[in-house]
């Protein structure tokens, strides 16, 4: 066989070898998509993923199956996704913990949150609000600040756990105001909120997804909200910035990621369908019910947000001495 024939044969084999992969990418998705949720079933992240998954199923033309993989502050689910095949059939809900906090909270991670994931798009964010028990002596933010300054270390605050956005929000508040409030960590938002409502712990930062109904019912008093502008759901509540606390925006965000190396057409398809889902009635109702602000945009905008938050929270976590290992 001459050289020309050998080269032609090799070229033909190479074409045959890559053709199935090319066809698979061009026809994405042609099988079920698995959506990893790094939290237990029934929680806020799980509910949001299921709502979006159902909306995106229509435009994707494939079923989306939710797979709950809780544990280790989202690291268990994240490690699974980071090591998955980059074909678009394994995606994941990613939030502050994975993309902004954990690299500062853990001495070592089995993955790099900046390099080992493909950013697909932001889902949304909801602000955290400073709340107190209705019988707490301070009736507004100014009085609260004066009270905790006059009683350093004597006021406790609850959180869903060490390293949670709620915990770190109060650490940021303490940093910005020069106050000392004692942390009481719980195992989840529900028991923390229950003890604040019951008066066992006087205050906490509470997210609207978990606490909007009790805020509106007056079971806790809302002193300030950590958003850039006032919430349309709590229009009478001032922002922390309005109350005089600088660089104090505190919110929980969620987005969609996949393993590093997802093909560009797969990312474009998932991003486009995610953005379309925000306009569906079911998603709009769910977001309105929990006070979540949809964040349609590009993968790069989501990456920029996540990395900016990681840079912002690193010094806060270090100053507070918070570690999860």
From TrEMBL:
Protein's name in the database: Tripartite-type tricarboxylate transporter receptor subunit TctC
InterPro entries: BUG, Bug_dom1
Keywords linked to the UniProt accession: Receptor, Signal
Signal peptide: 1-24
Coiled coil, from the record: none
Family the UniProt entry places it in: Belongs to the UPF0065 (bug) family.
